[in-house]
């Protein structure tokens, strides 16, 4: 039972990342009808926003410390951090330790601007083109962004530490009546799950309860009629592209301490996230979220040693096998809408 609980927690953790990326993908497809293969690169760029913020906040310069001497008796040159000069030793240290959450403040505007630039500069020219053309051009854009990151940051993963307050693991045993330290789970992975839940709820609330969101949903259902009412639906859809980029970017920021950012992580998540979108139903936001958590849990259980001993490699293909079964029985996915990508 303790292993069962741990695998469920692992599944919710993986499912959170899948659901957030798939949510952004579905927003873009549902509003613009674009199959965006550059979306995984946005997740990767979000993770590198955390790397950049950490490097900026840990920038240092050398000063001469008269109280410390080298072996010749000369004052030592020591590194000191700019943030500690500006905010004091204690506050500066706290700012550096919390660089990942602080990176969200940097990532959100940057990802929104990048989303606007992508939509206005490139993707708008492919609205009426076949989905195959959209896939090719956005996949090419993803490769370009990937190589840019590789050029500036190198090919090796860059460890990005979480705040010290969230190092270690939570002992679930006490809550469930088990022996102490039987069920341990990392704090940061729990933080990521709850953070993802809040972001998903906020996006749904924005679309469901705000006038802007209601117009967007109406435009997703019937773009031409909304346009005839005198509403500039194109500007609203451009904003939604920026919102989708921001959601995916902050998902990458918060995931940086879990998997060290590297230039290829975007493509690793992209393929799985597209499977999630297809399983959930193209254009269905609830379907994308539900499929993300479902497939995350299934992948987690398939990774158990007892399962791998019986079916070696099943953890690598379980998501695709489930996708095949679901699409054979429900061609539109779990919550897909009639007519979406069926022409």
From TrEMBL:
InterPro entries: ABC_transp_permease, BCAA_transport_permease. GO terms for biological process: amino acid transport. It is a multi-pass membrane protein. The keyword Transmembrane helix applies. The chain crosses the membrane at residues 16-35, 42-64, 98-123, 190-216, 237-258, 270-298, 310-329. The keyword Transit peptide does not apply. Its main location: membrane. This is Putative branched-chain amino acid transport system permease protein. It comes from Octadecabacter arcticus 238.
């Amino acid at each position: 039972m303790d292993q069962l609980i741990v695998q469920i927690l692992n599944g919710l953790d993986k499912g959170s990342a899948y659901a957030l990326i798939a949510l952004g993908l579905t927003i873009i497809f549902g509003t613009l009808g674009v199959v965006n293969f550059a979306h995984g690169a946005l997740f990767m760029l979000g993770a590198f926003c955390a790397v950049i913020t950490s490097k900026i906040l840990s920038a240092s310069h050398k000063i001469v410390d008269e109280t410390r001497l080298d072996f010749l008796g000369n004052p030592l040159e020591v590194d000191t951090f700019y943030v500690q000069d500006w905010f004091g030793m204690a506050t500066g240290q706290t700012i550096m330790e919390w660089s990942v959450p602080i990176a969200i403040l940097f990532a959100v505007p940057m990802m929104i601007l990048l989303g606007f630039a992508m939509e206005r500069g490139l993707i708008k020219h492919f609205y009426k083109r076949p989905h195959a053309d959209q896939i090719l051009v956005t996949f090419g854009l993803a490769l370009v962004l990937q190589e840019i990151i590789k050029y500036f940051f190198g090919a090796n993963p860059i460890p990005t530490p979480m705040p010290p307050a969230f190092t270690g693991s939570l002992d679930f045993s006490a809550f469930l009546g088990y022996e102490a330290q039987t069920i341990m789970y990392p704090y940061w992975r729990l933080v990521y799950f709850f953070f993802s839940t809040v972001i998903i709820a906020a996006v749904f609330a924005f679309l469901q309860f705000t006038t802007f969101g209601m117009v967007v949903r109406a435009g997703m259902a019937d773009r031409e009629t909304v346009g005839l009412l005198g509403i500039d639906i194109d500007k609203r859809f451009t904003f939604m592209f920026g919102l989708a980029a921001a959601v995916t970017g902050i998902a990458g920021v918060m995931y940086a301490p879990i998997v060290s950012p590297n230039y290829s992580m975007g493509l690793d998540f992209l393929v799985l996230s597209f499977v999630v979108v297809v399983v959930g139903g193209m254009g269905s936001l609830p379907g994308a979220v539900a499929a993300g958590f479902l497939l995350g849990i299934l992948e987690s259980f398939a990774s158990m040693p007892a399962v791998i001993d019986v079916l070696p490699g099943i953890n690598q293909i379980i998501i695709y096998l489930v996708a095949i079964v679901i699409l054979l029985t429900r061609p539109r996915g779990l919550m897909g809408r009639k007519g979406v990508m069926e022409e």
